[in-house]
Amino acid sequence: MKIIGLTGGIACGKSTVSAYLKQKGAFIIDGDAIARKLSEPKKSIWQAYVNHFGDKVLNADNSLNRRLIGQIVFTDEKEKTWMNTTMHPLIRDEIVKQIDECRQNGIEVVILDIPLLYEANWDKFSDEVWVVKISRQLQIERIQNRDGLTKEEAISRIDAQMSLEEKAKRADVVIDSSNAPEVTSQLVEKIWNERLL
C-alpha cells in the first residue's frame, strides 16, 4: 500500500485534486471530513471546544460557531496552540483506524488529505507528500469568495499555517492549481501515471 500525504494551504484546490485522485481509484482519508464529523454535537471535538470556551462557541442549534472559533484561534497564538495540541490527537486516532482498515482491505493507494500535514507530523506516515499550491493573491481571493471573510481575516487564516513556500520545499511533488480545473486534472493525471502506475 502506498500512502500519499496531500496538503496545501487553505483554498488552494486540495479538495479538487483529492477528487481527481479518488476518480483514479485512490482511497481518500479526508482530515477535514473527520474533523467535521468529530465536531458534531456531543462528539469529541465539540466537547473539547465547549469544555475550553464554554457555551459562547455554540450556535442556537447546538452546533459549533466555526466563525467565532476561527476569530479566536486565528488571532491568539496561545489558543491556536491549544486547538492544535487538543484536536490533532483526536483526529489522528480516527486516521490511524482508517489506514489500518485500508491495509486490511488491500487498498493500493491511500491519500491522506490533511491541511496541516506537516504541522501535525503526518508527513512521517506518508511515502510521498504532494503539495497543492497557488499564488498568495489568488488564495486570498478564493478564501474571501468561499468563506465570506474580509481580506484581513483571510490573511490571518493563511498566516496561521505553515507557508506554501515552505510546504513546497519539503514536498516530493508540487501541483499548481492556479489554472482551470481541466488543466489541474491533466496535471494530476500525468503525476498519477508517472508516480503510481
From TrEMBL:
Catalyzed reaction equations: 3'-dephospho-CoA + ATP = ADP + CoA + H(+)
Localization, UniProt: Cytoplasm
Q: Which UniProt keywords apply?
A: ATP-binding, Coenzyme A biosynthesis, Cytoplasm, Kinase, Nucleotide-binding, Transferase
Q: In which pathway does it act?
A: Cofactor biosynthesis; coenzyme A biosynthesis; CoA from (R)-pantothenate: step 5/5
GO biological process entries:
coenzyme A biosynthetic process
Indicate yes or no for the key word Cytoplasm: yes
Q: Which family does it belong to?
A: Belongs to the CoaE family.
What is the name listed in the Swiss-Prot or TrEMBL entry for this protein? Answer: Dephospho-CoA kinase
